[in-house]
Amino acid sequence: MTSTATTDPPAGKSPGATADRRRWLALAVVMTASFMDLVDVTIVNIAMPSIQKDIGASFSILQWITEGYALAFAAGLITGGRLGDIYGRRKVFLLGMGGFTLASMLCGVAGDPHLLVAARVLQGATAALMVPQVLAIVHATFPAHERGKVFGMFGAIVGLGAVSGPILGALLTQWNLFGLEWRPIFLVNLPVGIAGLIMGRRYISESRAPQALKLDLVGVALATGGLLMLLYPLTQGRELGWPLWGFLSMAGSAVVFAAFVAYERHKTRKDGSPLVELSLFKVKSFAAGIGVEVAFGVACGVFFLIWTLYMQIGLGWSALRAGLTGIPFSIAVSVAAGLSVQKLVPRFGRKVLQAGALSMMAGVLLYIWESEHFGTAIHPWQMALPLTVMGLGMGLIVAPLTETVIAGVPREHSGSASGLINTTQQLGNAVGLGLVSVVFFNALDEGEVARGHAGEAFAAAFRHGMWWVAAVLGVVLALMFAMPRKSAAGAEAGEGAEGVEDAGPELAAAA
């Protein structure tokens, strides 16, 4: 790798000690960036009702506040990673962190719902520049024998982000600092981002791929255009009365995706630098794994948004009460994720992921029953059991999924496969957020809400949406049977550390 200029070591310290300190400080910077991204996803959901009341956001706008971020993030991940390979990972990382910080400020000062959505899209796009560089920088900075320790730290950051995001969002919203309502959830990124830029510029060394591929701008345009043609009418359709152009747009997206596949094949023959390596889909286990990623992302996208709406708008809970309610879920995810990677998957392989899908389904069904049984009088402690069961299931899936999916992929394509897996899970999340219009808001009896029975109406819509989540998890379980029986680590012990490395992006995305 190419390194930036460094200063002479301080008196009394060896150059080796200075280099060692620099790389650990560089690690602190990139881990902080990952933490910012993780928290920013979970922190926003808690503040949704406050945003709705303060700036008059419609339900479709609330969807786009999360959907816009997820779509821009997913569409830009592969491109962001390639830009780092070509122009330098440090340079692109700092550009992404600077853009993310600026976009956070724009979110925090937005006074119009549409401006907030635009700022969130910018935030997602800049995160797509920042996040793919994190593991690449770690790979270039730390020797192989130290990466296991480093990725263990990343696992802790994932757990911390999952737990602290909702709580931090709830506290910042509840405290109403300086009368700013929900805005501090975004403005808190400013000091963190500025400090990260200063330290990153000083301590992160530059690195590039030895043989960087070219950018596939046409592929990016076709993929993004197809997604917008599918997701925009899906999200806005209910509010606009399901117009004919919406159905035509969704049907046309299939044509655009077909054109994307054709162009990627042409790009492969032309210069060998497509946006997506289509040959990977010839591996049966990888194709099934991509299906698992998409379906799992859809389930998560639907659940987290309707869960927030149910607790805060339906049941009328405060942001703090809703945030604290999610603690059992977050802790269960963190505990199960650690056990699955270190103990269970090397021994039991895909059975661990299947057990995770079954556990999540069981938790969803239990949640449906409790919502029906206790009605609007349900308490947070009564939600703890289904949330814990769901969290344990999610933890068994998210941590080892990437490693298991790429077990059958040729070694030379493992990097491309890992990036594609991460991207498709984010795309699934974006689709899930779009489907909320169909599976939740279509089932919401607005007449009941108008008559003052919002709790009953939102609870019924929540149960309807949760049945969809259970059905999608059933698809996840079915697709898992086509995945390898053993993970890469379980099949070949010598590749265990590499498998952990590949699991890193998935952990960050899934949290």
UniProtKB/TrEMBL annotation:
Cross-referenced PANTHER family: ACTINORHODIN TRANSPORTER-RELATED, MAJOR FACILITATOR SUPERFAMILY MULTIDRUG TRANSPORTER MFSC
PROSITE patterns associated with the record: MFS (PS50850)
Record field: transmembrane: 24-48, 60-80, 92-111, 117-138, 150-172, 184-200, 212-232, 244-264, 285-310, 322-340, 352-369, 381-406, 427-444, 464-482
The record, for NCBIfam families, names: efflux_EmrB
How is this protein positioned relative to the membrane? Multi-pass membrane protein
- Please give the name of this protein: MFS transporter
This protein's source sits in the domain of life called: Bacteria
> Which keywords accompany this UniProt record?
Antibiotic resistance, Cell membrane, Membrane, Transmembrane, Transmembrane helix, Transport
UniProt entry tagged with the keyword Hydrolase: no
Give positions of region: Disordered. Answer: 492-511
Q: Which InterPro entries match?
A: EmrB-like, MFS, MFS_dom, MFS_trans_sf
Q: Does the keyword Transmembrane helix apply?
A: yes
Which residues belong to any copy of the Major facilitator superfamily (MFS) profile domain? 26-486
Q: Indicate where this protein resides in the cell.
A: Cell membrane
